[in-house]
Amino acid sequence: MGLLNERVAVITGAGGGIGRGVAHAFAREGAAVVIAEINEESGRQVEQELHGLGGRALFVRTDVTSKASIEAAVQATVAHFGSVDILVNNAFIPTPNVLLEEKTDEMLELTLTSALWAPWWAMRAVMPHMRERRWGRIVNFYSIDTETGAWLHADYNTAKSGIVGLTRSAASEWGRFNITVNAIAPTAMGATYFKLAAENPGFAERSAAARPLGRSGDPEQDIGPAVVFLSSEMSRFITGETLHVDGGLHLPGYNSRPPHVPAREY
């Protein structure tokens, strides 16, 4: 008997990185997992991986910039598995890493759509099903970047600030249906991490050293269990909370100013 036995979960962006790690952790705990992913190749690959673990899994091609696509994914989940108990809002679409004054309205619009509107749409789509069952778990993804004002991420930081308000509002209002809503701020060795490590010699070592625990996180072994906890009966009395899952990085924080940008300009 796993912690998520007989539960049905929708995980957006589960085709890779942290989303894939969470999907694996969920399958090992007995959940049926819907991989709501736009990339068909990676989505079907994760579906097969979960089947290989003996889990129940379904890939549903999902474009998180489309309300209709998100709603269709929820409908497909209910049609295939009979319910939806857990929603993990992980997916977002990155924009170019440029200074705030160089960010365009189109970049902000894309980030707000994928990182804030998408969770809004998904949460409202699953809520009636959770309300009917009088049980639900929603986990939204926040970011330490917002707390540090990370350079080159102004649009992302703006959207993730909204996630905190959305999480707390839903926790306040939907608790009457026995639906908990929490957020996590994870850092782990996902696609972005490996890209930065390949492009910047010494990045992996510096990243590990910046954390009090002295290592970088693994999507399945480090982030997955935290999401499992917030999605299970073990967290039944926790809602509206934001949990840092980053090896302690939030304690010292970090300075993300690019080296080519002077500290002062006149």
Explain what this protein looks like in three dimensions.
By secondary structure, the protein is of the alpha/beta class. 46% of the residues lie in helices and 14% in strands. The chain contains nine helices and seven strands, in the order E-H-E-H-E-H-E-H-E-H-H-E-H-H-H-E. Strands 3-2-1-4-5-6-7 form a seven-stranded parallel beta sheet, sandwiched between helices. Helix 1 links the parallel strand 1 and strand 2. Helix 4 (105-133) runs parallel beside helix 6 (154-174). The termini are far apart. The model has no long low-confidence stretch (mean pLDDT 97). Belongs to the short-chain dehydrogenases/reductases (SDR) family. Keywords: Oxidoreductase. This is 3-oxoacyl-[acyl-carrier-protein] reductase FabG. It is an enzyme of class 1 (oxidoreductase). Its EC number is 1.1.1.100.
Summarize the helices and strands and which ones pair or pack.
Blueprint: E1 8-12, H1 17-28, E2 32-37, H2 40-52, E3 57-61, H3 67-81, E4 86-89, H4 105-133, E5 136-141, H5 144-148, H6 154-174, E6 179-186, H7 191-199, H8 203-209, H9 219-230, E7 242-245
Parallel strand pairs: 1-2, 1-4, 2-3, 4-5, 5-6, 6-7
